[in-house]
Amino acid sequence: ETEKAIVEAAKHYPRANVAEDFQYGTAGFRMKDDLLDYIVFIVGIVATLRSRKVQGQTIGIMITASHNKYQDNGVKVVDTQGEMLEQSFEHVATQLANVHTPQDLGTTYASVLKKLNIPATTKKAHVIFARDTRPSGLRLVKALKAGLEAAGAEYIDYGVLTTPQLHYLVKATNTESGRNPFGEVSEEGYYKKLAKNFVAAMEDAKPIGSVTVDCANGVGAPKLKQLLKHLPPPEKSGLRIRIVNDQIEKPEALNEGCGADFVKTQQTTPAGFNGKAYDRWASFDGDADRIIYYFNEEGPVFRMLDGDRIATLTASFIGELLQKAGLAEKVKVSVIQTAYANGASTRYIEQGLKLKSEFTDTGVKHLHHAALRADIGVYFEANGHGTVLFSPHATKKIFLSEPQSPAQLEALNILRALTDLINQAVGDALSDLLLTEVILAHKGFTVKEWLATYTDMPSRLGKVNVLDRRSYTTVPGSAERKLASPQYMQEKIDEIVAKYKDGRSFVRASGTEDAVRIYGEAAESFDVDNMVEKVMETIM
Ligand code: 16G
Ligand code: ZN
Fold first, then answer.
1. What tens digit of pLDDT does each residue of 77-110 get?
2. Ranges for all domains in the chain classified under CATH 3.30.310.50
3. What's the pLDDT tens digit per position in 34-81?
4. Rounded-to-integer distance, Cα 194 and Cα 46, Å
């Protein structure tokens, strides 16, 4: 009768009458919000199925379109440990999203049920969900509840949250009664966990000056304000956190001329910027899972401290702590990057820090999975999404080692606090902000010293809109750095790149737009522009 209930409910949420196929992509489903009601409805069904498949563990659903325009929205599913949805269920989601009538949905649901091997009468299903500040969020929640109810899930609506807060709650819920609870199952518990470990990780370090955070006029603003209430006051901690772009009551202001994506892609300061030379600024994106830093030098000359910089800063700090704690031989740090990482950052990781570096395809789930294989895996995309994962082996060493000196004890204490200050479920702007501030304080770095750790290669990112991006495929295992098709295109690119000193360029199909992206870097900045243009011409 679940099937019947689904058919009935689907009559109120007809699929948008468009020919295009919807696809569960790297960021779930994302599109204009008026196309989404049916999609959100079926995602409720998919999450319910997933929960049943994992014996009633809790599954999460986040309604957000991150850095995209306020007229867009999206939906994605969070798996039991706070990670991205298991692959086979992505296919189920895509399949159900492209069924055109309630009757068809019913039969497709029945066949999926069979294929997934879920008896119709199995355990209860549990789902929790949240949304960002977009105006369409509340309407979509209605469709979501209809899907969940038809499919028979028990659910909790957590209202407005950042994406990483929802990931936290999923993981906390599923580990609550186990041996390693992730944290209290509440928004409050999230703040308490971060605040406590921020104080512990700071130890006696003295933060330098203040940081101003551009919250993209999104959900990060009210949530950062909440977090600040749990932190020691600036007079005590020595750190002042200022907030700009917090106008969530103005929907059209979301991500408009501000936020991490704007600053990163435009290479300029956001709306509302009023910093002086060398003032430390950071930007969140619209759902607060990305953060980048930046500042102006005199001139003003804009300087970016992006995900690569946060990764190298973090890896170097953790590497030093392991040394001091006497654990450097037993616990290895790996840095996981994508093809977009600036070549200078990779060289610095390998030659400067003498740490392992590894590459994966674009998209958080690929980085996350690679990081899971490391002792300590530091992963960041250049665009500011990232976190650090501590393996059970590393965690055991960090918590069970007997310090041989006060210095070793101090290093161990900081490492212990870091394992809980860092949101190991997913990249998290709030957590990464506190982490970065802790490291800068310990190192005694201003933005100037941070930038001076290495010099970025001049780089450029281009985009060409194409009719069929699927004709652009990359060689498996190349981390998207080599094209397999169209035929001969990689040869042409190699030929162009060979003419430039330290040139590197790659082309890959976007996972989120009908376009291919072209990245290039070279020793000289005039060379990069020229090279990337030539590579773009091979596509047009
Ligand atoms: C998605 C990914 C992001 C990636 C971006 C690349 C997640 C949660 N998000 O937004 O990590 O950087 O896609 O977009 O995985 P592109 O394929 O259009 O270049
Ligand atoms: Zn985001």
1. 999 999 999 999 999 999 999 999 999 999 999 9
2. 459-539
3. 999 999 999 999 999 999 999 999 999 999 999 999 999 999 999 999
4. 32
Residues of the chain with CATH 3.40.120.10: 2-160, 190-303
What is residue 120's predicted lDDT score, i.e. its pLDDT? 67
Q: According to CATH, what is the number of the domain 459-539?
A: 3.30.310.50
DSSP state of 348: I
Question: Which amino acid type is present at position 471?
Answer: S
Contact 275, 296 (CB under 8 A): yes
Each residue of 307-322: b (16+ CB within 10 Å) or e? bbbbbbbbbbbbbbbb
CATH number for the domain formed by residue range(s) 2-160 = 3.40.120.10
Q: Is 51 a catalytic residue?
A: no
Ligand 1 pocket member 511 (CB < 6 A)? yes
CATH code reported for the domain at 307-451: 3.40.120
- Atom of ligand 1 at shortest range from CA of 340: 12
pLDDT at 196 over 70: yes
Cα–Cα nearest to 167, from 283, 78, 265, 276? 78
Binding annotation for substrate: 381-383, 508-512, 517
| Distance (Å) from CA 511 to ligand 2 centroid | 15
Per-residue pLDDT at 123 exceeds 80: no
The CATH number of domain 190-303 is 3.30.365.10 = no
User: What atom in ligand 1 is closest to the CA of residue 513?
Assistant: 18
Q: Using a 6 Å cutoff on CB, does residue 469 contact ligand 1?
A: no
